[in-house]
Amino acid sequence: MDVILLKFLRARDFKVNDAFEMLKKTLQWRKEFKADSILDEDDLGSDLSSFAYMSGVDREGHPICYNIFGAFDSEELYEKAFGTEEKRGRFLRWRMQLMERGIEKLDFKPGCVNSLLQINDLNNSPGPSKMELRLATKQALGLLQDNYPEFVARNIFINVPFWYYAFNALLSPFLTQRTKSKFVVARPGKVTETLLKYIPMEEIPIKYGGLKRDNDFEFSVEDGGASELVIKAGSLSIIEIPAPEVGTTFIWDVTVLGWEVNYKEEFVPTNEGSYTIIVQKARKLGLNQEPIRNTFITNELGKIVLTVENCSGKKKKALYRYKIKKSACF
Length: 330
What we know:
The protein is 28% helix and 29% strand. It has 330 residues and is α+β, with helices and mostly antiparallel strands. The chain has a five-stranded mixed β-sheet with strand order 1-2-3-4-5. A four-stranded antiparallel β-sheet has the order 6-13-8-11, with no helix packed on it.
C-alpha cells in the first residue's frame, strides 16, 4: 500500500489531496475489475501473445514490454480481439494482466527498479481507421494512466507512420503532461539508433537491428555483451578475431547503425604459404539489412578478418561480438 501511495504522490507532483482521491478511485476500480485475481486467469490471451509480451531489460534494469500493433493487421486476430464488446472487454482484461505480470518483476525496495519500459511498434498497424482498435487503445491508455501511475518509466513508439501524429493529437487531451513527457517517437530509419539509447544492443531483438535472437544457444546474457567500433566517413575499419589453436570454431554477430556499407569476411592464415579463405564475399549491405551472424571452423592457425567500408559522408557505428569454441573433433 505504501508503494502504491508513493506512486500516486509522484504522479500528482505530491499534491496529497489529488493523490488520495486518485488512489480511492483506483481501489474502487480494482474491486470492480477484480484485478487482484487477474493473475490466476489462464484463458485470457494465449492467442494475443503476438501482440504484447515481456522480454529483456533496458540499461537501467527496467523490464521491457513490447506492444506489436502490426499483429492486428491479421483480420483473424483483429476479430478475436475486437469482434464483439465481450471480446474487447477480454482484450482489456488481458492487457491489464500483462501489466500485473510486469509489476511482479519489479523490486520496490529503495534504490531498486520499480517501473517498466514500453516499446510500441506501429509497423503495419491498421491505424486509426479501425474504430475498434482506436477505442480499445484509448481505453487501455486511460486505464494504465489512471490506475498504474509511474509504473512506466518511458513509452517508446517506433516505426511511426505519418498518421500517428494525427492520432496522437486526438489522444493528447486525455493524457497528463507527465505521461506525455515520457513519450519517445522514432521514424522507421531511426529505430535501432533510438532503442540503443535506452537498451543494450544484446537486448534489442534482431528485427529492430539488435543482436537478440529467440532461443539463442550461442550467446547468453553473461557472455553476449557487444563491443563498439566507430567507422569514420569515407574510411575502412577491420575487426580481427584470432584463432588460438587449430580446430577453432568462430561465431560472430555484426550490426551497423544505418548500414549502407560494404562488408566482407575472410580467414587469413598465419602461414604465409597458405591462401586466404573468403568466408563472405564483399557486398553492399542496405538500410534494411538484419544483423549478421556467421560461423567458421579453421584447420590451421590464423584469424577471422571482418572488413567494414563506409563510403558515405557520415560516420557509422558498428557493434559486434564473437565467441571462440574448441571443436569436438580435435
